[in-house]
From TrEMBL:
The keyword Magnesium does not apply. This is Uncharacterized protein. Keywords: Hydrolase. InterPro entries: 4-hydroxybenzoyl-CoA_TE, HotDog_dom_sf. One of its GO terms (molecular function) is fatty acyl-CoA hydrolase activity. Belongs to the 4-hydroxybenzoyl-CoA thioesterase family. The keyword Cytoplasm does not apply.
Length: 134
């Protein structure tokens, strides 16, 4: 499991004083950064990252407010042949406020096709396989 703490910024709030719902997907993407670094294997060009995002979903289960940090937890829920499901949670003040999933696909840009996840990446994904604590 990977963890990251984010500090909500004032401009991320809406008229009700809540963190805007569009912000959470960005936080979750940032929480997937260790996976991007794994698959980048030293490459600095994001266009060479052999991953594409096939699906993203977010459930908002509580209100998120400006003024308190948010803990983002990221883990691997399932690993398939060429894709894997990333499970994520956002916690504020000890309460679960959002949960989500992202489906990432191992993708060969030169062939414009998915491909089986190489073993060197699969092993690291398996180390982070399991349910996130509730």
């Amino acid at each position: 499991m990977y963890e990251l703490t984010v500090t909500p910024r004032f401009y991320e709030t809406d008229a009700f004083g809540h963190v805007n719902n569009t912000v959470v997907t960005g936080w979750f993407e940032t929480g997937r950064s260790p996976l991007f670094q794994l698959f980048a294997a030293g490459q600095q060009n994001p266009a060479e990252l052999p991953l594409i995002l096939a699906r993203v979903e977010v459930d908002f289960v509580g209100q998120i407010y400006y003024g308190s940090d948010v803990l983002i937890r990221t883990g691997i829920e399932r690993i398939g042949n060429s894709s894997f499901v990333v499970a994520q949670q956002a916690w504020q003040n000890g309460k679960l406020v959002a949960r989500g999933k992202a489906v990432q696909v191992y993708f060969e840009h030169d062939k414009q096709a998915s491909s089986p996840i190489p073993e060197r990446f699969r092993a690291e994904l398996e180390r982070n396989l399991g349910e996130l604590p509730e």
